[in-house]
Design brief:
Chain lengths: ~200, ~200
């Protein structure tokens, strides 16, 4: 059985909830009380020394990091549609997973945490990172419907949540029409699930 | 033929140079003049809209992002030793690629750019990120020789350069004995190559 160590308002957790739903995989949710500091307790640090959610437990196999969990689910349960066997599309997916782990996390996601939960951040640096990555993604999606190849991949799932949550960080996502059109394609996928605060058509 | 768009002092480029050497793959180096701003010119932005190095060109297939290039080379040329077929080790590798793209880039790598090239950064935040990630990796390597499984993988190659360059960022890497022992294992790999400023035994 799959258990997701989860926090409802986390966009990183939502990446996993979305892929689990698109793959139609049953799973249990184990809420981690971030306000109460449960993520820094010994039980959770054993699962993930970084003290973060999400963590996935699949019959005792423990995986930390939202991108890594997407890789695991795609490879183990997704078939070739979700995990191509060719090196070139795999590398393109990996490049967007890096973008999700770095620029998306340190731009739109960080601004949201600041605006929504009051975390102190360097807002100028986060704003600059957000503008750059949103501009690059919007331009990329001008020429193609999905981030890699001609169908949805875990690249889209990794990048999507914090872009769709960007308005909560004070960003004007309406200025990026190709991103909005991509949101609409993602929302139309069978099994799509949303979360509070997320962009809606 | 493989061409690496490279900058000699970049630890991200060194990840690629190191794996190319370990895999004994011939390649051409195309230096990108970062001081002259070549990375922001139209030719390079066409290869990588993020305006960064490294970029790999393998007979016309263009790959941006150092982690993605490692994935490409491992999958295409490395065999199962470098790219396991099982979902669980792949996910563990992917988790460390995220750590390389985020915490290692925003901790030790950022401090080095600040100390070495004078880039303005939030030194307190970068120092905190560096301390956390170095502590976690040192603890992880107390129980195992390599970051994932029982042999070297691209997880090690992705994380190694900016840890071995950490002294250039003013960090005392000697405080992490398990990391030092792991450096020694990496330096002993057939085909290992170093770069200026890197930790040496």
């Amino acid at each position: 059985m799959i258990t997701l160590y989860d926090m409802p308002l986390s966009g990183n957790c939502h990446k996993v909830r979305l892929l689990l739903s698109l793959l139609d995989l049953p799973y249990l949710i184990q809420a981690v009380d971030l306000r109460g500091g449960e993520q820094r307790g010994p039980a959770h640090l054993q699962r993930n020394p970084f003290g973060q959610v999400p963590v996935l437990d699949d019959d005792g196999l423990i995986i930390r990091d939202s991108q890594a969990i997407l890789v695991y689910l795609a490879k183990r349960y997704g078939g070739e549609q979700w995990w191509p066997d060719d090196a070139y599309p795999l590398a393109q997916i990996a490049a967007w997973l890096s973008t999700a782990a770095n620029e998306v996390a340190n731009g739109p996601a960080k601004l949201r945490v600041h605006h929504k939960f009051g975390s102190p951040i360097d807002t100028a640096a986060a704003g600059q990172t957000a503008d750059k990555v949103l501009g690059i993604i919007d331009h990329h999606l001008q020429r193609q419907d999905w981030l890699v190849g001609d169908s949805v991949s875990i690249a889209d799932i990794a990048v999507y949540p914090y872009l769709a949550l960007a308005p909560e960080g004070g960003l004007d996502i309406g200025a990026f029409p190709n991103i909005i059109a991509w949101f609409q394609r993602i929302c139309a996928l069978p099994g799509y699930v949303t979360m509070p605060g997320m962009w809606q058509a």
